[in-house]
């Protein structure tokens, strides 16, 4: 077997010195040729590495001529002839190494900013782009990592008090004030609010944000209800609940309508088993688990927190989402229309939503359903007309869509609406 010429191989490598990037196939071929050159020239032998360093290298044995032939003919990659045709992948790998982030900052910058609202944080991030070689008096690196989540929260309609409360929690965590003698405070959260106010979306944003800045170790988010935690046999509920908790370690467990776990706590041994198991886990895993529960404030306070004496003290963070007013529901509707690349009526007013507010008990969810019926009414109105009218809504579409929306409402909505009014 003829060995690869050392001079030729060096020339082959030198031919890539002026290249700014490699496609994946070329890189794989280069690695293969390098490996073959290493084997064929027996650079692993003592003649090259010395007897004292033999154990530092993986020994590659060449048993006989057949093994050598097999390696050459069954290799995945071989040198490419001129007429070789291959599919080259995009995104070439740059040859120039990127400059690593400095271990020790060489500059210092004092940022004088009062962070009272999420908008204040975003203004700071806009004004002072994070530089890895600069030390700051505030944790700019973490704020920069959470920028997308902060923007998502800030663009959500309404929720002024909730946004401020989340900012308070973020600033508290960023300064490690929740750590005492190496042990964390409880991070568990209550989201008070009626259905359709974005509680699930908020919980996801919180989980993503804290995983990015290291408060949570994993970007895990699992939404569950009573059926996901409670089994039908005694002893199985604890196993089922623990399994769900273990799946969420390092991230967020979100329990929607958590009061359903304790509606009949005294009479339901399965619910009791679930609540007691959950309460124990809230303490055992407070360093590596964030549990977020959601539901009506009175329901949670009068059932869930009374079901176990230890529950209330484990949820120190409580965020309240106020019901949307007519103006905010209009903003939600217009945002949904715009996000779908439709155009809302120019003469759509807050007064229209105020007059029909009672018909929208589920707020954001109701706006989404209303938009669906409005689109259907629009399709019926413009059928056979110029295409330029498409996706441009008017008040005829709104009123016809509302009529269909009311016709398709579930009968229990009226009962639920009355129930909601007891807490608003």
From TrEMBL:
Record-given protein name: AAA+ ATPase domain-containing protein
AAA+ ATPase domain boundaries: 185-323
Alphabetical keyword list: ATP-binding, Nucleotide-binding
Gene Ontology terms, MF aspect: ATP binding; ATP hydrolysis activity
This protein's record includes keyword Hydrolase: no
Family the entry assigns: Belongs to the CbxX/CfxQ family.
Gene3D superfamilies hit by this protein: P-loop containing nucleotide triphosphate hydrolases
């Amino acid at each position: 077997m003829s060995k690869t010429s050392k001079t030729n191989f060096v020339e082959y490598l030198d031919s890539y010195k002026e290249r700014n990037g490699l496609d994946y196939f070329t890189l794989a071929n280069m690695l293969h040729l390098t490996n073959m050159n290493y084997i064929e020239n027996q650079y692993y032998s003592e003649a090259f590495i010395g007897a004292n360093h033999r154990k530092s290298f993986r020994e590659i044995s060449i048993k006989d001529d057949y093994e050598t032939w097999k390696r050459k003919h069954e290799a995945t990659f071989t040198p490419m002839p001129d007429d070789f045709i291959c599919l080259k992948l995009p995104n070439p790998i740059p040859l120039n190494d990127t400059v690593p982030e400095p271990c020790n900052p060489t500059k210092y910058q004092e940022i004088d900013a009062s962070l009272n609202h999420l908008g204040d944080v975003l203004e700071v991030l806009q004004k002072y782009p994070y530089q890895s070689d600069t030390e700051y008096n505030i944790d700019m690196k973490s704020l920069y990592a959470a920028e997308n989540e902060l923007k998502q929260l800030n663009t959500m309609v309404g929720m002024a008090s909730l946004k401020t409360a989340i900012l308070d929690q973020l600033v508290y965590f960023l300064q490690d004030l929740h750590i005492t003698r190496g042990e964390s405070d409880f991070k568990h959260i209550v989201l008070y609010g009626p259905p359709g106010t974005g509680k699930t979306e908020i919980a996801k944003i919180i989980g993503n944000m804290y995983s990015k800045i290291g408060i949570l170790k994993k970007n895990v988010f699992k939404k569950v209800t009573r059926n996901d935690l409670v089994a039908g046999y005694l002893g199985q509920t604890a196993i089922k609940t623990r399994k769900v908790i273990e799946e969420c370690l390092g991230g967020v467990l979100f329990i929607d309508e958590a009061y359903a776990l304790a509606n009949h706590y005294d009479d339901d041994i399965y619910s009791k088993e679930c609540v007691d198991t959950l309460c124990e886990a809230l303490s055992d895993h407070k360093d590596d688990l964030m549990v977020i529960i959601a539901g009506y404030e009175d329901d949670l306070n009068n059932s869930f927190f009374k079901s176990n004496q230890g529950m209330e003290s484990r949820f120190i963070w409580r965020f309240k989402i106020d019901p949307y007013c007519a103006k905010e529901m209009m903003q939600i509707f217009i945002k949904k229309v715009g996000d779908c690349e439709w155009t809302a009526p120019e003469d759509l007013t807050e007064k229209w939503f105020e007059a029909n507010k009672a018909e929208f008990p589920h707020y954001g969810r109701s706006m989404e359903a209303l938009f669906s019926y409005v689109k259907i009414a629009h399709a019926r109105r413009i059928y056979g007309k110029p295409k330029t009218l498409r996706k441009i809504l008017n008040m005829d579409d709104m009123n016809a869509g509302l009529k269909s929306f009311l016709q398709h409402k579930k009968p229990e909505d009226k009962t639920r609406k009355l129930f909601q009014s007891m807490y608003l």
